[in-house]
Amino acid sequence: EAQVTQNPRYLITVTGKKLTVTCSQNMNHEYMSWYRQDPGLGLRQIYYSMNVEVTDKGDVPEGYKVSRKEKRNFPLILESPSPNQTSLYFCASSLPGTNTEAFFGQGTRLTVV
Amino acid sequence: AQKITQTQPGMFVQEKEAVTLDCTYDTSDPSYGLFWYKQPSSGEMIFLIYQGSYDQQNATEGRYSLNFQKARKSANLVISASQLGDSAMYFCAMREGISSGSARQLTFGSGTQLTVLP
Fold first, then answer.
1. Where would a tag sit more exposed on chain B, N or C end, judged by fewer CB atoms within 10 A?
2. Interface test with B, best of A43, A47, A57, A66 (most B CBs within 10 A)
């Protein structure tokens, strides 16, 4: 089954404690991205990757890091989480240069206290 | 400036009736794609329908259709014969530069919460 898998689904952590949210896709998609969803703001892109070892900032990259060492994986790293990073996070993948939709993971609800 | 504007934070519709969710967009790129996603209370993002800027006809997918008015830069989603299961948040999104061969980011609107009344 074609899917994007994120882990964990729910996470409560404390300010400053480094964490990683994993994302894996099994569709051989080149393009992957991370979004955060906040009430009234829709989804905003954090980082994206066009292919292995190619990443770039989206609209709200501050406080986040990513890496793309393998095509299927695109982890999101919060080196020192802060309460304003409490949000619902989505990973997505798609084929580049096509008109197909982005496939989304199930979402990760992060709370930073 | 907002690239995607959804002016209806919340909408109500009676079961079995049709409803239109508004979406306007802003781009100077001649090549772009417009997407609608549904997010039920469980949280997942479900792709509904796509419209390309060069498509001559309005897109349709089952009970979903897209009323694409290019000159007005609007891409309204029409849901016919609403069902209780249609109650969800609906997002309009745009990807620019489709023809460039690179997948640009999806830019989302703020969403419309649709409630279907029995």
1. N
2. A43
